[in-house]
Design a protein that fits this description.
- There is one protein chain.
- This protein has two helices and twelve strands.
- The longest helix has 6 residues.
């Protein structure tokens, strides 16, 4: 129960865009990552950088089928179980897919392909101290 006004001081701006405060089941507060940067990816298979991972919206125009691989579970930096952040992939191609692949200890759940001319929405969810699920939302 909070009976007084809470004030959170603003820290330095970062690539993670933490702009919502949430509480876990123990009542501890944590920042919810809600990236909204639009990042254009090169037409190549790639492992997403930390900045790309936290950007929020990734777009690509692949000239052939491409695979994007997530960071490892440890690299994703989610500190509490069931913390999450969402991201989107926009495929600007007329005929080629973008496939999402999980890095070490990252499991993809749902359709891993973003069809040509469409977009997809995913959520990274920390499911244990060593594992992350990436869940296809749309």
């Amino acid at each position: 129960l909070i009976d007084k006004k809470l004030i959170f001081t603003k820290g330095k701006s970062s690539a993670s865009h933490v702009n919502q405060i949430c509480a876990n089941t123990d009542g501890e507060l944590f920042g919810l990552i809600t990236g909204r940067r639009l990042t254009t990816l090169s037409d190549a298979d790639a492992t997403l950088s930390q900045l790309q991972t936290r950007a929020g919206v990734l777009k690509m125009t692949p000239s052939t089928g491409r695979t994007l691989t997530t960071r490892t579970a440890v690299d994703l930096g989610l500190n509490d179980n069931f913390t999450f952040f969402d991201f989107s992939i926009i495929n600007l191609s007329a005929g080629d897919i973008i496939r999402l692949s999980g890095g070490t200890d990252v499991t993809i759940q749902g359709n891993i392909d973003t069809a040509a001319g469409t977009s997809s929405r995913y959520s990274y969810v920390r499911t244990s101290s060593t594992e992350i699920s990436v869940i296809r939302l749309a």
